[in-house]
Amino acid sequence: MAKKMVYLFNEVKGGNTTENIILLGNKGAQLAEMTFIGLPVPPGFTITTEACTAFYGKGKKWPPGLESQVRKKLEHLQRKMGKKLGNPKSPLFLSVRSGSYVSMPGMMDTVLNLGMNDESVVALAKQTGNERGAWDSYRRFIQMFGDVVMGLEHSDFEVVLDGVKKKHGARYDTDLNTENMREVVKEYKKLVKEKKGVSFPTNPWKQLRMSIDAVFNSWNIPRAVKYRKINNLRDDAGTGVNVQVMVFGNLGWDSGTGVGFTRNPSTGTKEHYGEYLLNAQGEDVVAGIRTPKHIDDLKKEMPGAYKGLVKIFGVLEKHYRDMQDFEFTVEKGKLYVLQTRTGKRTAQAAVKIAVDMVKEGLINRKTAVMRIKPEQLDQLLHKQIDPKAKKKEDAVAKGLPASPGAAVGKVVFTADKAVKMKEENEKEKVVLVRTETSPDDIEGMNAAEGILTARGGMTSHAAVVARGMGKCCVAGCEAISVDEKKGVFRIPDKDVTVKEGDLVSIDGSTGEVFLGQLGLIEPGISGEFGEMMKWVNGFKKLGVKANADTPHDSKISRKFGAEGIGLCRTEHMFFKPERIMAVREMILADTPDERKKALDKILPYQRNDFKGLFKVMSGMPIIIRLLDPPLHEFLPREENEIKELADHMGVSLQKIKDTIKGLEEFNPMLGFRGCRLGVKYPEINEMQVRAIFKAALDAKKEGYEPLPEIEVPLIGSVTEFVMIKEIIKRVAAEMRVRGKVKYKIGTMIEVPRAAITADEIAKEADFLSFGTNDLTQMGCGFSRDDAGKFLGIYVERGIYKRDPFQSIDQEGIGKLMKICIEKARKAKPGIEIGICGEHGGDPESVRFCHRLGLTDVSCSPYRVPIAKLSAAQAAIEDEKSGG
Amino acid sequence: MAKKMVYLFNEVKGGNTTENIILLGNKGAQLAEMTFIGLPVPPGFTITTEACTAFYGKGKKWPPGLESQVRKKLEHLQRKMGKKLGNPKSPLFLSVRSGSYVSMPGMMDTVLNLGMNDESVVALAKQTGNERGAWDSYRRFIQMFGDVVMGLEHSDFEVVLDGVKKKHGARYDTDLNTENMREVVKEYKKLVKEKKGVSFPTNPWKQLRMSIDAVFNSWNIPRAVKYRKINNLRDDAGTGVNVQVMVFGNLGWDSGTGVGFTRNPSTGTKEHYGEYLLNAQGEDVVAGIRTPKHIDDLKKEMPGAYKGLVKIFGVLEKHYRDMQDFEFTVEKGKLYVLQTRTGKRTAQAAVKIAVDMVKEGLINRKTAVMRIKPEQLDQLLHKQIDPKAKKKEDAVAKGLPASPGAAVGKVVFTADKAVKMKEENEKEKVVLVRTETSPDDIEGMNAAEGILTARGGMTSHAAVVARGMGKCCVAGCEAISVDEKKGVFRIPDKDVTVKEGDLVSIDGSTGEVFLGQLGLIEPGISGEFGEMMKWVNGFKKLGVKANADTPHDSKISRKFGAEGIGLCRTEHMFFKPERIMAVREMILADTPDERKKALDKILPYQRNDFKGLFKVMSGMPIIIRLLDPPLHEFLPREENEIKELADHMGVSLQKIKDTIKGLEEFNPMLGFRGCRLGVKYPEINEMQVRAIFKAALDAKKEGYEPLPEIEVPLIGSVTEFVMIKEIIKRVAAEMRVRGKVKYKIGTMIEVPRAAITADEIAKEADFLSFGTNDLTQMGCGFSRDDAGKFLGIYVERGIYKRDPFQSIDQEGIGKLMKICIEKARKAKPGIEIGICGEHGGDPESVRFCHRLGLTDVSCSPYRVPIAKLSAAQAAIEDEKSGG
């Protein structure tokens, strides 16, 4: 006797087991599972993947016994449904679908409405009372079967259809009446005959046989083979074939179709949710011609079906232990479930459902934590454009979603203007639009609701600063062309010109730009969110800190659960208007004495900045990075500003211009910055360190507990580090810090050379912190500001799996990090190693950091919960894999 | 009995042995050696280093027995010389010098003319007939003894001397007469009494005791301790003390002094060479007041001494087996040799002497090869400013010695002007002066004799290209300020303005800039040079190739012994005037088709370029690098050029400006270049590969043997490489190259990520080639164009041992190279790995490459012999150390 190659859905034992998935394919096992747990699935059977491989083994012939097994199961179906394939009174229709051990969406073939012929179409017309619909189904079947099974070109059918439409003056398919549809069917059959030399098969059994052949064959069509190659799937696995009875929701007012959610996917509330249409098919719900009703209405309209549905809600939740989104059809009062899957949900719903299910005893805390997509939490932390107000097609341009949230405001083109408008009217809302931003624009960015730039990538200045500020930003919006001087931006493609003062709305979560004012939704954090984060804190191993430069940001960081400041950039403090003049004096100084004099003016400001930080973060460590950017970033660019500076300092315009020219760099990324500034001008670091210690001593006196960790940027060699460390220790000794304030001295690892010589550096440093932005730039050899020209293609073509500025390039830069960590920990076991680049807030990167054994990550305050959740998930995954 | 602590020079057995060096110090052993081989060294004795350590063991007291031993040896000297310390008739004078086991130049103390007092000075005056001289010696002795032995400030003596000079209206020391000198001596003694409360010691024995004490003590003065720490020398070694009789060449016309060379240090000819002065002291020869005579004249003037000298020439050469430079003095007809050392020599002499000595059987070939400093060979390969014509103080500015050789010509400020002047008059010589050069300037640089730039370092564009061309270049000459528009450069410090057309002379070996026209010396390669290079080829293990882009450069490469082309940059070919327009069309193309059309215009040119190369280099491999620089380098900058291009292409000015703006980069180093161009625009590489294969097939047909090795630049990931490799293989298949032309496909390692993932890359590549310039830039995180702002300080302060762009940073980038090589060779054992950056011509880097196990290095054609010699020396060193 031949091996069993065909299984009725209800013959399969155990449902969705690995064994069944391999034997029946993923879809077959799912259908078996649904049947197994008692869902009213339309009956059907699955031909095993073994039959498929046997088919290939026999030179593409059905293996012995398959035909008789299929016939037997078909008869079973016909009996059960009281219908027969091709029967002119009560015809049965089938779907034939592929299904391998892993879902290969869209790769293999499907045939619907199998069983259509000149008789059954009449029966269907009668049953549905919709003659045109029946004939439309018929012509669709010929088209699908012709294309998938018989190998005709889809376009050939289109030509025929267009011909008929033209003949009758019809513009759309829907303009064709029943007669016209009949004509299409006739012409389609003619086409098949012409092209293939055979008649279109009207025998349903033949249709079925050919369809099963087609599914078998589709296992080895080029796109499927290629898909398997890319995704590393087995070529010898074969596909299962799922033959299932088609049920119709349009057989009258005792039929219908709908979608159900076991909980509310928007709010997460535990309630029956969904909608349906009577006397309709699935596509009618989607098409939106008729407005579906709420599922509660079904109670009155079809009490029996409703009762069945309520039972299904219970079965699904109990079995899947997650919110399910399922499709159902009622055929002549009988309820069928066609498909169920884990339902998509908003972030708010996701958190509520997970927490509720823990309380209900359905899942445990770890499962709940694993359920939330870290990225999704972002929704809970920023303003959004009201989905009701926003239509995709209204967007006039689309850039990169550089910093989440949304903003509405008047367009301004300079940072000064943004500041001025805000000063004149505190309630004024502006959107700063620039070709690109520079550190000069910080104040203006701060004053603006959001930032829109024409150039720059996800880690351009605008993007990084905006994310740090938690401000919405659309960057690299290449469709717009900004003319800052004229005070306009143009969108040539749309023939749109936007002037200063015009209102725009931007969505930093999608990159969309809209004209005018759209409604915004305020962020809301539900109580379950807090509960969830407590569990997260218990599971995670990685520390999570925030990048924050001001007391304001630090407050937000604490609010969002940061365990310290992982990066405080001191240079942002230099840009404030009352300080920038002194900074410029310092840069233009000819002698160390002059430089010190200028620095002395800055010192009190910095001291106050730091004191503010120490107060807010009392008891938590703050990594303070010494001055990092190249000096030219602090110098004026505009002629009038240069003039002003010259007048203020009493030096010639030419001298200032010469200094500016002298500081110009071909590759500022690779220029005179970071610790190089301190090596050449030790006075600068000395002032900063003095300010830090003074602030710490003051804060201590007032009862706070300051924990400064001074960080030296852009180290390439241990010698550089030691030089700056000596300055810090000398100042500490002069100020008698010991015994009063605990402090650490560490450094960043952002230059590849530092990673390679990390053993030497670790011996001298209290902590290391990866600056993965710069490490990626230098390690991969592309600047984040310029990479936009090719990085898109690079990601598209798989050279990098993801934009390496968004997610750590684990195969390259990650290896360099690994080398670094090994060297550092070998030289100084247990040394604290963190990461403070933008990657610290990227879930996948956080997981990678966990696996690397880092001590902590640091990210934008607004991403702290995301990083924490990712860290917890990584730890749970670790546990599972026994790590 | 006390241990023997004092050795007469002629008591020491074995001369300059390690044992003696440890016991007596380096200088003591040298003096023993000279005495031992029969040189008439003024007699003396050495106090052992053991005595010094015993001195410290006794709390800075002479160990028992030392005094009696010193007294005994002193008596021996007095007897031998027939003179006595402090004797008013025939006084003996001594020198007292330190000398540790390793020379610590200038670290410890020395006393000369010991024995001077009020009586001996009179005797010396009488003997020399130079009363003023005798008193001058006396006052010098007091000054030196006062400073070194008694611890007075050198400046205190200067104050006294200045006082006396002022009093007598003397401007220089030489204006003081005998009386004045006596007065100085008196005042000096007064000073000593005042400051130290004791009289200046007139007892010569006391002088000697105190001097020996001083030398012992100088072992532990801070600068000596620090020097030992830096140089890793032993603190417990102690110093020897060398006490030697002073001899005088100024005791009358039967006395004299001079310098001898055993061979001619300029030409290397084997002849007695040197000069002398009768009745004079060493300093008189140096001072240049009297003109010394040639050593041959001594034959007539002092036949006895001459005979002695001839004997010494023989002894020295036989013993030291190298050209010696020695000092001699004749005191009353008796010849003394004071010092001998290996003589400095010109490159020409170095080569000739080494080769001659092999022929004479004095040394073997390996020793000969080890004798030549690779760097020195440079002299043999470039034009030089005639040393007679050049005075250091005439230089009006000094920049970096960026490319060796010298140039004289008329100043021009644009590449176009340089080309134009050369076209108008082929014999015209111009020097191109620019703030900095860009690839646009290539043709102009080629037309010029030399290049002078105000900005940029040793590896700036100007420097790199000039070295490649073998053209003299002074780069980064910050003292000059270039105004290209006005056609002048200014040297504000010197108040000099140089206009277009003015003559200047520049020295690329020193960085000096001179006004006007200085004489030049043509390079000359003597026959011995060729012979030496044959030996070098026999010893070296590393292959040495040249970086050459043109048939002309390739010819030079072959002439200088290159074993192939290690780097042919294809982009230089793009700049020729007849091609640049097509290149610009290609860049401005909107579609692949347009781009191909433009590329088709360039193809024939490239094909001819390559064919020329294949012919010249027939039978040798040529690594051809695909297009590397960012596209914006090819676009015009000046308004009129942009206009011209717009007219030519029939597009709007705005479109071209937009393209130029769109291609602008913040960090061009890290931008859209290298293989990234090919990933985005495969057409470009395809054209280049087509041109290479077509040229190779053509050359093959004509009987040449082309060996192209196609190199993909700026790879960061193996996927990029494979993409370009597939293009190359496809074109090769289309052109049916197989079986006709052997070719390889390899890549550069210049991005740190490529080094880290070299195992993956090696599996796919036929060869790897380090681009250490870029690897250093990205690995260390500084651009070579910008690093000038701090790199000076970095090298000065020891953060880098040498400029990492000149010599590989072995401690950092070298480690990265090592990781790369290990990974690559593990994945593909024996894979060829070369280096083609500027470092390929730096001797120390070449040695490092040998140790790393690289296959070959590639450098400027003009540095091929230097690289070969370095490679040979590394191999010989390896053998010695048993490697």
| CA(first)-CA(last) distance of chain A | 48 Å
Question: Percent of residues of chain A in beta strands?
Answer: 15-25%
User: Which strand order does the major sheet of chain A show?
Assistant: 14-24-23-16-17-18-19-15
Low-confidence stretches of chain A: none
Which protein chains are joined by the largest interface, and how many residues does each one contribute? A-B, 50 and 50 residues
Rg calculated over all Cα atoms of chain A: 34 Å
What structural category do the secondary elements of chain A indicate?
alpha/beta
Q: Tally the helices of chain A: what do you get?
A: 34
Can you tell me the overall shape of chain A?
elongated
Question: Largest sheet of chain A, described in full?
Answer: 8 strands, mixed
Helical fraction of chain A equals 40-55%
Q: Which whole number gives the mean pLDDT of chain A?
A: 91
Oligomer: homodimer
Overall strand count of chain A: 33
Q: How would you describe the overall organization of this protein?
A:
The structure is a homodimer of 883-residue chains. By secondary structure, chain A is an alpha/beta fold. The longest helix of chain A has 25 residues, at 592-616. Chain A has an 8-stranded mixed β-sheet with strand order 14-24-23-16-17-18-19-15. In chain A, strands 26-27-28-29-30-31-32-33 form an 8-stranded parallel barrel, surrounded by 6 helices. In chain A, a hairpin with a 4-residue loop joins strand 20 (481-483) and strand 21 (488-491). The relative contact order of chain A is 0.06. Chains A and B meet through helix 25, helix 27, helix 28, helix 30 and helix 31 of A and helix 25, helix 27, helix 28, helix 30 and helix 31 of B.
